[in-house]
Amino acid sequence: NRYFSLIFITLSNIIQAMTTEFSDPTVDLLCDLIRRRSVTPEDAGCQALMKERLDKLGFTCESMQFNDVTNLWARRGTSNPVLCLAGHTDVVPPGNEVEWVSDPFEPTFKDGMIYGRGSADMKSGLAAMIVAAENFLDENPNHPGSIALLITSDEEGRARDGTLRVMNALDERGEHIDWCVLGEPSSQTELGDVVRIGRRGSLSGMLTVNGVQGHVAYPQLADNPIRSFAPVLAELHGIVWDDGNEFFPPTSFQVVDLRAGIGAPNVTPGELSARFNFRYSTEWTHETLQEKVHSVFDGHGINYELKWHLSGKPFLTESGKLIDAVSQTVREHTGRAPDLSTGGGTSDGRFISPAGVDVVELGPVNASIHKINEHVKVDDVITLTSMYKRIIDLMLL
Q1: Is the overall model pTM greater than 0.90, yes or no?
Q2: Which of 202, 245, 203, 210 is nearest to 227 (CA)?
Q3: What is the pLDDT of residues 185-217, one digit of tens each?
Q4: pLDDT of residue 346 exceeding 90
Q5: Among 134, 155, 161, 380, which one carries the catalytic annotation?
Q6: Is 111 in the active site?
Q7: What does each C-alpha distance from 275 to 256, 258, 281, 311 come to in angstroms?
Q8: How does DSSP classify residue 365?
């Protein structure tokens, strides 16, 4: 009995060590955020938790609800310039929860990491921003300019009722942001090794190729859309769209969905549907890309319908005060200069930049985002808080 009691006590201590929060305000807040099951577009009370802290700091907080999406616009100060810290509370679904080291919505500490859905993408960024603002205001209660936070629960989903709608609302009432720091997980292997200063555009095509269904043994009596589309697809994949430029990687073309057939082995389909996506550099506009694609289809003389969806145009922040401040901050905290990049997918920066806002993205390492056992280094969470606070210092003081 004594032997089994010792085993039980040991296991209990291990479990307690895995789930005990560190005595750090950012880590504690991150744990509270992870516990809220905010699968997109749900916010699950994350913004209310942050609003409570921002209210105490003297922020004017405004909740903006658009359909099932919750947004928070919080601002302290009425003068310019305006430095905005932005991010999202929504997370992607956890996937098969059995494969996680623990409950994905219960923060777990292991080997210097915090495990949990949203730990890296991007609740650690949000927690660091809140605590950085608290630390800054503790030292500078009468700061010049304004500090703002723009937080949405619609970044991982359709992204139509989140940051885009908030920016439209701010524009309608003449409220302007000068600089914005997004807490997206921009780092690749070490905190601060990559800072995003822009993003490629994203353009999707929804294609239907029309044919005539028929018996597989009598192709002369049918029109197989797979046969019609095959040479078009080969040509599109063979095009070198561009080589990128000084700031952007090359444009890429990818087919993400392709369907045809009725499930019978002896019937050729009457219709093919496909969806493809361009991540494009500033060598193109969405209009010139569309024109090029249509010219390829028309050159093959096939019967098709093509609809387009523009998720975001490419944007780039030019060298200036914001990039200088972020680069200096990274050097001070890590001893190295960050790689200034426009790679990766899209972010809500595509909705903020068009308003004439300088936008950069600085956040934790992205190696585990959207994966089973998503995690972030405890030390990185603490350092990120110090980084954001330093950026606020450099931009407003």
Answers
A1: no
A2: 210
A3: 999 999 999 999 999 999 999 999 999 999 999
A4: no
A5: 155
A6: no
A7: 6, 7, 20, 14
A8: B
